[in-house]
Structure of ABC transporter:
Amino acid sequence: MMGLLKQLRRRTPLGWLQLNHEKSRLLVALSGIAFADLLMFMQLGFQTALYDSNTRLHRSLQADIVLMSPQARNLPSLSTFSRRRLYQAMDIPGVKSAEPMYFNNTIWKNPQTHREAGVLVIGFNPDKPAFDLPDVNQQLQAIKMPDTVLFDRGARGDYQKAIAQIDQGKTLTTEIERRTITISGLFKVGASFGSDGNLITSDQNFLRLFLGDSPAVSV
């Protein structure tokens, strides 16, 4: 038995010798495997980033059921549907309330650089909090003021000075749809693949910006 163990210890490491015979080929093979692993991890990272960034708003919604137009593709590309669908939903036993929420992907002027940039504007009834976002829910009275919005501090772009001023309690003005708006506060959601940032305001302010005060449609 002892003799067999000694033979096993002295046996030639063929596998290592084959790998070590041509070190350049070994390095090339290891580099190829490492590069393939790197690509897989990058793809997993892109997939996670895409999913997380595009579902942050969805996860913060305070709702059990959401009605959407069958033509809707994503939040920046929604379609309208008739408000009577909400009334029909309210007639269903067990439904406590049905409130409209408005989305529009539009262009605004960066309050810091005054350059145009894309932003997703969200409107809802401030008396019926729609998001589980403390920074938003603490400022519901502010967005009731005409043409007043909250700005996403996680937006992609050059907004550092503007955010610092708002943090100091100052308000900023800029333009959307050739209409002057006031930024009175901040919240954080972050940019997504569909928009560089978000603005939150009341449903009435949203209608004034995009629908000319007409509540005929709901998103």
